[in-house]
Amino acid sequence: MRKSSAVSRTVIAAIIIIVIIVAGVGGYYYYESISAPKLSGSITVVAMAGYNDAALKAIAADFMAQHPGVQINVVGIPYGSIVSDALTAFKANQSIYDVISLGSVGFLGQLGPYLLNLTPYMKSSQYFPSTWNSSDVISALLSLYSYKGAQVGLPEAGGAMLFYYRPSLFNNATNQKLFQQQYGYPLPNPANTTLTLQQLVDVAQFFNGQHGSKYGIVLMSGSGDDDAIQTFEALMASARVSASNTMGPVTAQYGVLFTSSGTPIFNTSVAENVMSDYLNLVKASEDPLSSSYETVPGFFAKGDSAMMIYWNPPALYLNNPNRSAIVGDWAVSPYFPGGHSILGGTGLGVYKYSKNVKLAVAFIEFATSPQEAIKFVQLDSLMPFRYSIFRQTIQSKPAYAEALSAIASTMSESVPGTANVPYWGQISAAFRGELPSMYYGKITVAQGMTYIEQAAYQAMSQYSA
Description:
The chain is built from 18 helices and 13 strands. The strands form four sheets. Strands 4-3-5-13-8 form a five-stranded mixed β-sheet. The N terminus is likely disordered. The two termini are 33 Å apart. It has two domains: 181 residues, Periplasmic binding protein-like II (D-Maltodextrin-Binding Protein, domain 2, 3-Layer(aba) Sandwich), CATH 3.40.190.10; 229 residues, Periplasmic binding protein-like II (D-Maltodextrin-Binding Protein, domain 2, 3-Layer(aba) Sandwich), CATH 3.40.190.10.
């Protein structure tokens, strides 16, 4: 989503976790027991209204049928209001919400401190039996919901920024001949080639207003909070992964625009080079500096462009003649330009001071199990986060089999994009504020990226003050 393995438990002996706390020259042992959950009472689950609420209500009904006397209340709250509503309650120490739907953009930066560390529960077979099957979960998506080293959420739906293209334009013999003549190398086919960013720019310019396409590419470059910056993050992913030897690995805490220790990297040569490529792509795109999350897929569905970089939702309707003019003439490349993209999707977390932690943890294990998680696909048309559910979905949607396989491949090679920090909003504002000046040449890329980095440091200092 934007802002692109449950069976009955067998009662067994409690697992005793021994925590050693050293105090001065002495010490003592603190024993905490994670017992097999004896479920009773009620919890409230926050769903994203119109997004995952149908699945969560159906899963809640299944859970209550297996556990008579337990009550699961599912309430729908708009996506944009969940963080503020939950923070209001959490800061007041009110256990109004027990399970929270988590977006992949900005949620953990604010809600992370209030969410339960699920790691010890996931290590307990009493809470997470072997049938939950963690090896079936796309690991990159699981890591997306970590906060300061703690697993505070579980994925319920996957997502990634994808590379869409029009096969008819790339397979055209005339286009292949003309591209070779103009650029001196074969027209790269996204079906079997990982394009470099420079090759992506070349192809976009080649198809921009010619060779059967109105525009070279469509992508988000508008002024919305997460429009332009998310596209930039996706293009940055491979460059940032390649720089891991000096910047550290990409982490969910900081994403692709920081080092692993939290240092912004906007005015580095790595980011500046990607920004230059991004600006060239915007110049070969439809509706530059205005194209948004809402408009981009419609442009591509009309057949306006040769390529699109966007999140995964269109992959489930581009073969619908009521919504698409390119039925049968579109595909998702299994190879995002550069080799890596950024993750999206949604997850579920538990309020650490929930009035019924045992029930809340048991519910999210159930909801994300192989047997129940398929409902997020069936009832809310969300993208799977488990390989097994991808296989089931491919069998039930043969017209989308190739695209779904490519999406699973892209997710497996994706990394966290947006930083889970409370000052992300200020960084996003600075980015979209400087982008037009760089685009029109009023300032250089180096100057613009320096201004953005200065704004990032200022936001960080205000937060830490």
